[in-house]
Automatic annotation (TrEMBL):
Main location: cytoplasm
Region feature (Domain III): 152-199
Protein name, UniProt field: Holliday junction branch migration complex subunit RuvA
Region (Domain I): 1-64
Amino acid sequence: MYQYLTGKLAEKTPSRVTIDANGIGYELIVPLSTSQALPHVGTHIKLLTHFIVREDHHQLYGFLKEDERELFRYLISVSGIGPKLAMTVLSGLGVPDLKHAIVDGAVPVLSAISGIGKKTAERIIIELREKIIVDDSQTVRLSKHLADESLVEDSIQALVALGYRKQNAKAAIQKVLSMNESGKKIKLEEVIRQSLKYV
């Protein structure tokens, strides 16, 4: 129904923005990648949109780039994934890494995102793998260790044994692994030690 919105950026938070279009304030839920790339409040902007209508709720979702919106639409087509969870997934990894995780079948990477269990991660991969096109000229392939299931699982178990909640442990480990941009192999002890900063 709505292809895009243009207007003045009136308000901005990490997950929501308000666009003033001809005196009407439109609230849009946005992924972290869009929020971080937006200019200062008061600037004129254009956001691509996806409008979801429910019996008790109408909501606009906004995206700075077409690949963000496309991936969002793919995600909500997967059984068991609604708009809120799709936004969490997009915000948790970002478009390039999320595409690679799906194409590479990296279940531990996806299941490290809050709200995504192993079965849901597997379902995302099965249903979307053939639809995703990865452009290696624009993005760096996921480091091999990100798909190392044993490293992730062992790290989670270690943090749980220390008394931390499993979901918090997953999120912390994902953060540590995603920060290892050099791609060098990282040891279990190092993952645990760094993860303790984020749980």
